[in-house]
């Protein structure tokens, strides 16, 4: 399966909204509209990063935002020492899960952001009940912090300097 990445825009937002994520509650992963709003905010404020709409062959199958982490009051102390990226809105179409695509998409997105903007550690929030996602992120080098923002636990992938 050939993966291709394009920037999420208002022109292709309809495709992002068509990704089948009906079994993924909004409390687990933000909607495509929310990711577009955050992307627009980032563009207006000149934040670095990418919001990717991902195709497998000719079908849109994934969405994620990986960009500059604007400081939040709930951020763990580790994030207050140096600039971080924040991963948001990562979802794979239901028909394409459990095929190894999620890991490939995540790692390629990280590589692209590192190539374009430089290496930084990465933070994300994972809903306390989203056990499969927590296991996935841990397999990809993210560690639990025990710090929560509401129902989301922070996971960090620290870059050693």
Explained architecture:
- The structure is a single chain.
- By secondary structure, this protein is an alpha+beta fold.
- It is built from four helices and seven strands; from the N terminus they run βααβββαβαββ.
- The chain has a seven-stranded mixed β-sheet with strand order 1-2-3-4-5-7-6, sandwiched between helices.
- A hairpin with a 2-residue loop joins strand 6 (143-149) and strand 7 (152-157).
Summary tags:
4 helices; 32% strand; 161 residues; globular; alpha+beta; single chain; seven-stranded mixed sheet
Structural class: alpha+beta
Helix content: 25-40%
Beta-strand segment tally: 7
Calculate the terminal CA-CA distance, rounded to whole Å.
35 Å
Strand content: 25-35%
Following the backbone from N to C, one meets helices and strands in this order, namely: EHHEEEHEHEE
Report the uncertain regions. Answer: none
**Main beta-sheet strand count, sense and barrel state:** 7 strands, mixed
Give the helix tally.
4
Radius of gyration: 15 Å
Give the strand order of the largest sheet, numbering strands 1, 2, ... along the chain: 1-2-3-4-5-7-6
Shape: globular
What is the mean pLDDT? 96
């Amino acid at each position: 399966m050939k993966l291709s990445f394009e920037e999420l825009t208002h022109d292709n937002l309809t495709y992002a909204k068509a990704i089948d994520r009906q079994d993924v509650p909004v409390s687990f992963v933000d909607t495509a509209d929310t990711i577009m709003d955050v992307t627009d905010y980032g563009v207006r404020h000149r934040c670095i990063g990418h919001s990717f709409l991902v195709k497998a062959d000719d079908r849109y199958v994934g969405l994620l935002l990986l960009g500059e982490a604007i400081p939040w009051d709930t951020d763990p102390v580790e994030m207050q020492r140096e600039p971080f990226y924040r991963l948001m809105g990562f979802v794979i179409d239901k028909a394409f899960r459990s095929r190894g695509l999620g890991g490939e998409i995540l790692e390629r997105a990280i590589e692209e952001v590192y190539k374009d903007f430089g290496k930084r550690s990465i933070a994300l929030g994972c809903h306390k009940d989203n056990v499969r996602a927590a296991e996935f992120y841990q397999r990809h080098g993210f560690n639990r912090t025990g710090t929560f923002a509401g129902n989301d636990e922070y996971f960090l992938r620290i870059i050693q300097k």
